[in-house]
Design a protein that fits this description.
The chain has about 210 residues and is α/β, with parallel strands linked by helices. About 20% of the residues lie in helices and about 30% in strands. It has helices at about 50-65, 110-115, 120, 130-140, 160-165; strands at about 5-10, 15, 25, 30, 35, 45-50, 70-75, 90-95, 140-150, 170-175, 185-190, 190-195, 200. The two termini are about 15 Å apart. Bound molecules: S-adenosylmethionine (SAM).
């Protein structure tokens, strides 16, 4: 059991893995506290590009560890930099992401417009500028049977699942609503590609 989980600049996701029973999440605070890990033995790696957000993540991890939580490994850099997570290729049980996904020019709530850095919110003209490469990166990181969860804009309830379904190494693509019922995140499972048929299966080797 590899027992680790990668969360590219993500963190709201709370996920569970049935097969390897690896559970983890990132750095998000829930009602002022870190979410507790259902699998405290999981190795958790988080990625963040913004130096300011990185500093907050370090501080939050410090508090989390101070309260007895397991250390989260933090890697500073761009998730699209192939060198950043190269050592983890084909080994992750779970990848979660809360990327910037709001289409450029969208009018957002005043508190977001005033206080959130644009690079944390906006994801290019169609909002998918980072989600597109992220799908390939996640598929490469996951081992067979590993799970993926990506948060997305509520206007992308069909688009993002379609991007995942277009990948033959991903199956079991399911769209999920948020607490207000809006389409908000999608999950999928990494499967093995068979050379003969070109079809994906849920085998046990990568
Ligand atoms: C929607 S916010 C999520 C913030 C926090 N992780 C959470 O879940 O509450 C997106 C985060 O992704 C970071 N980010 C944007 N582009 C990135 C990239 N190419 N590589 C790594 N991090 C990136 C932003 O700095 C921002 O902190």
């Amino acid at each position: 059991m590899n027992q680790f989980h990668v969360c590219p600049h993500s963190t709201h996701a709370t996920a569970h893995c049935e097969r390897r029973a690896v559970c983890a999440f990132g750095l998000a605070r829930v009602r002022g506290r870190f979410t507790s890990a259902a699998r405290p033995d999981a190795r958790v790696i988080a990625v963040e590009r913004s130096p300011a957000a990185l500093a907050w993540a370090r501080r939050n991890i410090g508090e989390h560890v101070g309260r007895g939580g397991r250390l989260v490994e933090l890697r500073g850099g761009d998730i699209t930099d192939q060198r950043l997570l190269a050592d983890l290729d084909g080994t992750a049980d779970l990848v979660t992401a809360n990327p910037p996904y709001v289409p450029d020019g969208t009018q957002v709530e005043p508190e977001v417009a005033r206080f959130d850095p644009p690079e944390a919110v906006f994801g290019g003209a169609d909002g998918l500028a980072l989600i597109r490469p992220l799908i390939s990166i996640a598929a490469g990181l996951l081992q067979v049977g590993g799970r993926l969860a990506i948060e997305h804009d509520d206007t992308h309830g069909e688009t993002v699942p379609a991007l995942l379904r277009a990948r033959r190494v991903l199956t079991d693509v399911v769209e999920h609503p948020d607490l207000t019922g809006r389409p908000r995140f999608v999950t999928a499972t990494r499967v093995r590609m068979t050379a003969a048929s070109g079809t994906a299966t849920g085998g046990t080797d990568a």
